[in-house]
Structure prediction request, 274 residues.
Amino acid sequence: MSNVKVGINLEYVRHSDKSFEWAVEKAAKLGFEYVEPMVHWGRELLSAAGYFHSISLLSDPLYVRRICDENGVKISGLSAHSPLCKPDISTDYLRQAVRFAAECGAPVVNTDDGPKPAWTTEQEDLVLMKYVLNEVAAVAGPRNVWIGLETHGQYTCTPSALARVLELVPAASVGINFDTGNSFLSGNDPIEWLGQVIDRVVSLHAKDISQEAARLYRGKVRGMLGCACGDGVIDWRKVVAICKRAPREIVLSIECGSIEDAERSVHHLREVIG
Prediction:
């Protein structure tokens, strides 16, 4: 059995005005093994009304597990992105996300460095991120939950920048959520970078970037929703080959912007994985 699995980030229904429950059921019908729900703090009107896919951290994590169990899918992780340079927001949010993940059965909580305060220096931002990561790691470690630091913001968008942030926390519970599309858009070679850090990767956002988007946006943005896997610039055979060397199971959590792209992606990646 391969240690590379295929999942879907529930952002694939972001533009479809559908609920968390609908998104999970549809993912199962499309043949996905894993889903990556997005969580939010407090009450969000569109989500509560069934027009958006995220689910509140104030809801019952066992409900999330039950919905996934009823549809025969597992949870690869939680999308809980929060600006690490803003500890007043991210510390408690991520700690609650970790507790939620432990109870609903998600092995990873994914986040990123996010937008920085306008008034802080780079050195100050490193101190702020160090505080947040160490506080969250102290909650995640005893619960066997990984923190997946995504290749996304200005402090994680290059190999050297990401390495510096990872050095801020000694805990083994902090790893990498490698985003293939984001790493490409930032101007890196995603295949080379992934090969360098595969031992630290705990989650992978399988994102492809169309030829047109690559021409227009590479070097200008650090992230965007992708096209269907196989329709863009990412070499998925090389990605999968590297992931098969990982010391743990890697779920390719597809991140795309439509149901149609999700369906094409799962067929392509399953063919590649073999």
